[in-house]
Amino acid sequence: MLARAVTFALVGLEPRRVEVEAHIQGGAPSLTIVGLADRACQEAKQRVRSGILSAELDFPGGRVTVNLAPAELKKEGSGFDLPIALALLAASHQLPRARLAEHASCGELALDGRLRRVGGVLAVAEGARRDDLERIVCPYEACAEAALAGVEPVGVRHLSDAVAYLRGELEPPEFVVGNGKARRRPLDLADVRGQERGRRALELAAAGRHNLLLGGPPGTGKTMLARRLPGILPPLEEEQALEVTRIHSVAGLVDPDHPLIGYAPFRAPHHSASTAAIVGGGPRLRPGEASLAHRGVLLLDELAEFQRPALEALRQPLEDGELVVARAAGSVRFPARFQLVGTMNLCPCGARGDPGAQCSCSAQRLARYRDKLSRALLDRFDLVVTVPRARALELQAGPGEASDPVRARVVGARLRLADCTPKRTAAADELLTRAVERLPLSGRGRAKVAGVARTIAALAASDAVLPEHIAEALAYRAPTELATP
Ligand SMILES: Nc1ncnc2c1ncn2[C@@H]1O[C@H](COP(=O)(O)OP(=O)(O)O)[C@@H](O)[C@H]1O
Ligand SMILES: [Mg+2]
Ligand SMILES: [Zn+2]
């Protein structure tokens, strides 16, 4: 007897339909899974057998073959447990085959038959909606996430509930969604005293989605400033929120009660992070930090401490807005349009840039430090500022401007930039051209200066890019001695 359940395997973030066929024949009892299942998926055998027995259902006798079709598609993870169990039960007449074939399902089985959440439920549910499947049977905790795809979830806590529902004995359980969107309490800029230049650069970075490098001696508030960028970014649009949630879902990072990520994500990997952790990849092909920061901020705190290969690997997504991870069976794409923020001391001892201290670094040590950063990477930073040691007077001053009014200006500038991009006046154009020759600026450098100047004009509510805007933008270029060519 043959029965079929439907689920979806993910290629990157893309759901590909998988038919889980269970076939029972006479002979000595055995269970075989074919169709390019990875190890976690092969281990389904134990979980499915134990889960079915725990649910007080019959594990079919005879030779059982489970085929995951199409065979050439790699099946990863434990989300296939539930469809495999349901196909087996339908093949042994314990639930109606026709009804099962109209549903999608996914979820991991515990040995006692309970269902566990798996990553990627949103993308699987999107596959179910695309293929016009009736409903998706999934772990109860994944309901709210599945519902984001516009398909009705049947959230179950135990295999026996899934069976009862498919037999028509149980209505789809109601599920409660908190207040919909995920929330975050961002750090406020009011905490930062002084540092007007750093604040200004942060606001420009937010308004123009520019990459920002904050340099300077330790303890001046670089990390503090960088961590406050997400709090002055506008919320994500609906489409973007779904895109971000899809990525975080695959990594198993969504809040079950508030799955939709409606704000710009913020990721700050430690400098010891591997290249794979940052740009993704590895055997299970999960999105890396750069993809988790899609539509948001990737902070590399203490930039010069990161491994150079990890830093260099970021050049491609900075250019293309996506990461292409190559693997044997073709390549997989993950979106990675993030804003890069870095902080660093200007030298290993940290005294450089600090008028009150004397740098004790040897020329050799300094050269090695700067070797970590390639000129090519440094070129990707549109805004480079030094954050000097705040004068005592500044620190005694009251709190700085709070994040709310800054975010309001950022939103205004974004609207302006989307509406009608300010154009350079003839004088501004001439200033830029002269700077290109004098500095000299690469093609990319010129484009970056022009872009920052546009943001400055938009924040000033100016219809045109004026020479003063170009002049300010030029002041944010990276000093050439900061990196090796
Ligand atoms: N401009 C500032 N305003 C308020 N507090 C500051 C400022 N700069 C430094 N601090 C204090 O010093 C601590 C260290 O700042 P941090 O941002 O980590 O410095 P950095 O990253 O430049 O080494 C902060 O937690 C904060 O308490
Ligand atoms: Mg710091
Ligand atoms: Zn030094």
Low-pLDDT sequence parts: none
- CATH class term of the largest domain: Alpha Beta
Q: Major sheet: size, sense and barrel closure?
A: 5 strands, parallel
Beta-strand percentage range: 15-25%
Give the overall shape, derived from the CA principal axes.
Answer: elongated
Give the overall average pLDDT: 89
Which fold name corresponds to the CATH topology of the largest domain? Rossmann fold
What is the count of structural domains? 3
CATH superfamily annotation of the largest domain? P-loop containing nucleotide triphosphate hydrolases
Give the distinct bound molecules: adenosine-5'-diphosphate, magnesium ion, zinc ion
Number of strands: 18
SS element count, helices:
21
Which structural class fits the helix and strand makeup?
Answer: alpha/beta
Q: How do the strands of the widest beta sheet line up side by side? A: 11-12-15-10-16
What structural keywords apply?
3 domains, binds zinc ion, 485 residues, binds adenosine-5'-diphosphate, five-stranded parallel beta sheet, Helicase, Ruva Protein, domain 3, alpha/beta, four-stranded mixed beta sheet, binds magnesium ion, Ribosomal Protein S5, domain 2, Rossmann fold
Write up what this structure looks like.
The chain is an alpha/beta fold. It folds into three domains: 2-166, Ribosomal Protein S5, domain 2 (2-Layer Sandwich), CATH 3.30.230.10; 189-402, Rossmann fold (3-Layer(aba) Sandwich), CATH 3.40.50.300; 420-485, Helicase, Ruva Protein, domain 3. Helix content is 37%, strand content 18%. Strands 11-12-15-10-16 form a five-stranded parallel β-sheet. Strands 1-2-4-3 form a four-stranded mixed β-sheet. It is elongated, with a radius of gyration of 27 Å. The site of adenosine-5'-diphosphate (ADP) has 13 residues, from helix 9.
